[in-house]
Amino acid sequence: MMELVVDKISQFQQFYDWAFSVADERVSDWPLMWGYTPTLAITAAYLLAVWVLPKMMEKRPALQLKVPLIIYNFVCVIINFHICSELLLCSTALGYSYSCQPVSYTQDPHEMRIAKALWWFYFSKCIEMLDTIFFILRKKNNQVSFLHVYHHATMFPIWYIGVKWVAGGQSFFGAMINSFIHVIMYTYYGVAALGPEFQKYLWWKRYLTRLQLLQFFVGLIYCSHSIYIQCDYPLWMEWAGILYGISIVSLFINFYVQAYMKPSHRQDHLSQPAKTRGEKGPKTNGHLNGHHTNGIYNKKDN
Question: Is the pTM for the entire model greater than 0.70?
Answer without folding.
Answer: yes
